[in-house]
Amino acid sequence: MSTRPCYNLDPSDMPTKWYNVVADMPNPPQPPLNPGTGEPIGPEALAPLFPMALIEQEVSQERWIDIPQEVLDIYAMWRPTPLYRAHRLENALGTPAKIFYKYEGVSPAGSHKPNTAVPQVFYNKQAGIKKIATETGAGQWGSALSYACNMFGIEAQVFMVKVSYHQKPYRRSMINCWGATVVPSPSDITQAGRDVLEKDPDSNGSLGIAISEAVEMAASDENTNYALGSVLSHVLLHQSIIGQEAEKQMEMAGEYPDVVIGCCGGGSNFAGISNKFVKNKIDGRDTKIVAVEPASCPTLTKGIFSYDFGDTARMTPLLAAHTLGHDFVPPGIHAGGLRYHSVASQTSQLLLDNIIEAAAYRQLDCFEAAVTFCRAEGIIPAPESSHAIKHAIVEALQAKEEGKEKTILFNLSGHGHFDMAAYDSYFAGELIDDAMDEAGVASALKAISELPKPVGYTGRSGGN
């Protein structure tokens, strides 16, 4: 068995199809509903926001969907991405576990987000769209979409959650470098933003608010469409290239993961690394698959499975998923990409069906894990990725305690080069360490008490 630390696929081995987990789920995601009628919506309801090619992918039941050659040509600028064996981390932990990580930080934007930004902009370009509006939390999605829009010559407007807009100025600079416009959300350029500012002039913002602003802008201009960086099925579809590559690379290493881990906010990074392994588990392979979230925004571990809006202004269709309520505004933790009140419907359904598991950790614990990883492996992780690292370390130390070998795979979804202010705060002892208590959960969930309830609704919080 090879002990080389890095496993690189030949460019000719890059997947040429996306994998759609919906084709293999025992229970597919429940349909989105019209909030006015409570009836399932059809593709026509999404037409004002998305090109038809993406709508078709959103509702597709096909297992494999071809990746357009134009998209493959741009993917080839950084894909296939490397898989590393974390020998030094294993030694630092003194564990018999074998730890592997898929590194998505080699993309131009420094994260996994261009995997979906590029095809989304490609299909919008084909449809003749001139401008795309979007939201971004930590700035990774906003920078990825700006990069893709620049590649295809489309204008981009980014609404960046205000707390991250000020925490991460160099993400804003990246967005500007690729020619896009970025404003802090809530802003005064949309009615949704003005409504929030009227109630709370000092609002730190949330992804739900930023989505409302972007959707409003897209819905009011026939030449402008909306793009989402997570949650929707077509987004998770595009990210499946990560797990497909990882499966091949694990074969190169002569290993198969006992545990697959990804951080989880809206679900795109987690689904990207895990959905191909979800298929194998459904087919009978014994693998533990874990979605890891912040304790301050515990959607899967403390939210309830219910229909809810994807945005604060209640402009989106109702989606069946684990949620903390569309009014929920999480604390301003530095893992801005994980600060979302809900999660992808397919990820929620997989949790409901006990195919995947969920865990939540506090911010300080995750930064401690990130520093341990950095000092062993040399890569500074994004705060989002630190959640996956934290759980990988938990699994590795459990293997040490039990004296058992275990093969662990996690997705290192991006680097932390634009998050050094967060590391400065950590080393200075200034980071908050919020966790959401049951009273906070109950208060947040009041916003959805009158909304329709999906199959599987129990009214109880907690992942299962």
Mean pLDDT: 92
> Helix share of residues?
25-40%
**β content, as a range?**
15-25%
Q: Enumerate the spans where pLDDT stays under 50 for 5 or more consecutive residues.
A: none
User: How many individual helices?
Assistant: 18
In whole angstroms, the N-to-C terminal distance is 39 Å
Give a structural overview.
The protein has 464 residues and is of the alpha/beta class. Helices cover 39% and strands 16% of the residues. It has 18 helices and 15 strands. The longest helix has 20 residues, at 383-402.
TL;DR?
It contains 18 helices and 15 strands. Helix 2 runs antiparallel to helix 4.
Task: Detail the topology: elements first, then pairings.
Elements: E1 6-7, E2 17-19, H1 52-59, E3 64-66, H2 69-75, E4 83-85, H3 87-93, E5 98-103, H4 114-126, E6 131-136, H5 140-152, E7 155-161, H6 162-167, H7 169-177, E8 181-185, H8 191-199, H9 207-219, E9 224-226, H10 233-239, H11 241-253, E10 259-263, H12 268-282, E11 288-294, H13 299-302, E12 304-309, E13 318-323, H14 345-352, E14 357-361, H15 363-377, H16 383-402, E15 407-412, H17 420-427, H18 438-444
Helix pairs in contact: 1-10, 2-4, 3-15, 4-5, 4-10, 5-7, 8-9, 10-12, 11-12, 15-16
